[in-house]
Amino acid sequence: MPQVNDLAVAPLRDYALRRSSLDALEAMEIVTPTAIQVQTIPLLLEGRDVIGQAYTGSGKTLAFGLPLVEQMDEGERFVQALVLCPTRELAQQVGGVLEQLVAGTRIRCVVVFGGRAIGPQQDAIRAGAQIVVGTPGRVLDLMGRRSMKLDRVKFLVLDEADKMLDQGFGPDVERILASTPKERQTALFSATTPGWVLNVSKKFLHSPEIIQTKAEDGGPDIDHVVYETFGGGKFEVLRRLLDEEIEGSTLVFGRTKRGVNRLYTKLSKLGYKVGELQGDLNQQQRDRVLTRFRERKTPVLVATNVAARGLDVLHIERVINYDVPESHDLFTHRVGRTGRMGRQGLAITLLGAEDLAKFHEIERGLGRKLPRLTADGKIVQPPVPLRRNGRRMGGLGRRVRR
To answer: All domains of the chain, ordered by start, with CATH?
Structure first.
């Protein structure tokens, strides 16, 4: 399959899109398509099923959103498209993009997820919303209440499919898909696509085109730095980093809800303007925290992995892994919160002695050893490409900030 560098990249206005979509793209100041959009939009407009794998922040939502909107019949008042997302935050982000695309039309989009009253969501569906974006649990709830029928869905999207099709979501997704027509068009998108996802997708898609973009196809511009804190002192390093003056915002990842709350409390008491995002907050609290972060009223957000997917905030200048994530895939999703849509980002990982074995696995997944510094900033290890089968492997970042 040709890479994006081999393709003539036409502006999005040259695609066969409805006038309202072109107006929306102009309002969003989006002209040139990204690699994943170049390779998937024409296929989806032709009615093909697609499995699209691309880095986070690469424009996947528009890659499926534009063709989805083209399929909608404004005159018909029933659910014609369904987008399934693993988290509330991602559902809200996707819904926000689709709302911009259908502005000025009679197409209606509703976002459904738990933690909010189900009544208004039922009302929006009964009023004739053509597009539903939601989490599997709330979608099943609406189906069980007979508030939503999916028997005329013609376009279905599984967003962040690696998460969607894991052991936790798989059964729910299969129940939902069984309620949709077999002849529907299906798109499966994710930043990572493990082999088992491709196997499971065979049950859901019809002869799909598999699109995999690479970092050299316009991948994220993310610098990586690892601080060794083998003798403790993670919090002191974090404070020093937060005291640096930067233009953008900072997202700090912790491992557990309790740990994130402790970190948030300590930073707040020291006078830092910081927000907290973790699973014990109710939806109203989450929305308030995210609104303040998006509006730059809170320059620092401390979060669990609930923010690793679906948090699309372009002014996040750096991600700090205060706690090392459990896997390479999760590392990819975390650091993908920065360097979005062609912007430069910085990913910092604070490495304790207890994290070494786990971090070695992450580096193997990345295909490179990341540059390491001591807690006081002295170089311990420059970036080193790993070798597999005698071949040098690349990584997520292209430059190292020293």
So the answer is: 4-216 (3.40.50.300), 220-392 (3.40.50.300)
